[in-house]
Structure formats: C-alpha cells, structure tokens
Amino acid sequence: MRDARMNPTFLNPQNFIVAEQGSQGKEKETGSATVVGFGQVRPVAGANEHVWELASVYVLPAAREQGVGSQIVSKLVQNFCNTDKEGASPRRLVLLTLADTASFYIPHSFGVVPDPVQAQPPLPPILVLEFLAGSVVARLSRGLGTKLVVMELVGK
Predict the structure, then answer these.
(1) What are the tens digits of pLDDT across the range 87-99?
(2) Across the chain, which distance is largest between two alpha carbons, in Å?
(3) Of 54, 82, 147, 152, which cross-links 95 as Cys (Cβ 3.0–4.6 Å)?
(4) Is the predicted pLDDT of residue 11 greater than 80, yes or no?
(5) Mean pLDDT lowest for which of 41-50, 66-75, 147-156?
C-alpha cells in the first residue's frame, strides 16, 4: 500500500479479497502463490451501512494489464450486490480515485459524481471530508494538476 501511496486508514482484513498467481501455474501442486492484488468494500463511517466504499484496490505493476484489477473489482461489486437484503433500505457503493484512473471503473458500472460536496442524495460527511482532504494531498504529492473524483455504482 505504501508503494501505491494509498490511504491506509479503515483497513479491515475481513473486507478484503486477494488475487494470487502461482509460480508457472504450480500453486495447486506446491501450495505456493504470490499475492498480486487486493481490494475491499467497507462501510462508510456514520452512514448506518447505507453507503459503502470500494477502496484499497491495488495490483502489483508486474501483474497489471492482465485483467487482475478488473477481476478484483468485479468480484467486490458482485459480492456487494449479492448481500443486498430483500426489503432493506437501498445501499450505495462509492469510490474515490484519481481522475486519470476513473476510466478503469466505468466498465464496472461506476459513474463520476459531478459535485461530491453538493451530491443528491448527499454523501456522508466523512466521505466528503475524505474527498476534500484527499484532493489536497493528491495535489501536494502528485502535482497541482492532479484531481480526485468520487464515483458511484449505477444501474445495479
């Protein structure tokens, strides 16, 4: 996570899924595999489990462009959608990401929230604060032209 310059707060191993690759496909024989990526869906604090965040998605550079990240996101979205309870209040799945990586999430049914501060229905205050603070940190750490966006799962 440190190498990816990701926010390490709110990490809970129970919320994660992990992608592994074996050494030349022999992981079943030897039991050895290498973690090549991971991600989580976690409840947003103060949202009474009505808003959840897809977070901490990371794939090792050597494993990128092989569909690993897409598999992680697809599985997390599928798990989220499969846990909706009949008759329960609708839940929202959101994520924060750099604007230049937003296109990765669009095929997974995420759309950009145009104005996270004035979103309707409103986003939880802690998520808006994370967006605002994260925007400042991203500009300071990655350059003034860096923009953070909030995306939301639509149509699922």
Answers:
(1) 566 789 999 999 9
(2) 54
(3) 54
(4) no
(5) 41-50
Rg (CA), the chain: 16
Tell me the pTM. Answer: 0.83
Contacts of residue 1, Cβ cutoff 8 Å, sequence gap at least 6: 8, 56, 58
Strands 110-112 and 92-98: unpaired
Q: Which two tokens stand for residue 102?
A: 């937003």
Both tokens of 42, joined, read 């976690």
Matching residue, tokens 């009474």? 48
CA atoms within 13 A on the CB side of 127: 31
Please provide the DSSP assignment of the chain as one string: -TTTT---TT--GGGEEEEEEEGGG-HHHH--EEEEEEEEEEEPTTSTTSEEEEEEEEE-GGGTTTTHHHHHHHHHHHHHHHTPPTTSPP-EEEEEEEGGGHHHHGGGTEEE-S-GGG-SSPPPHHHHHHHHHHHHHHHHHH-TT--EEEEEE---
Q: Are 123 and 115 in contact (CB under 8 A)?
A: no
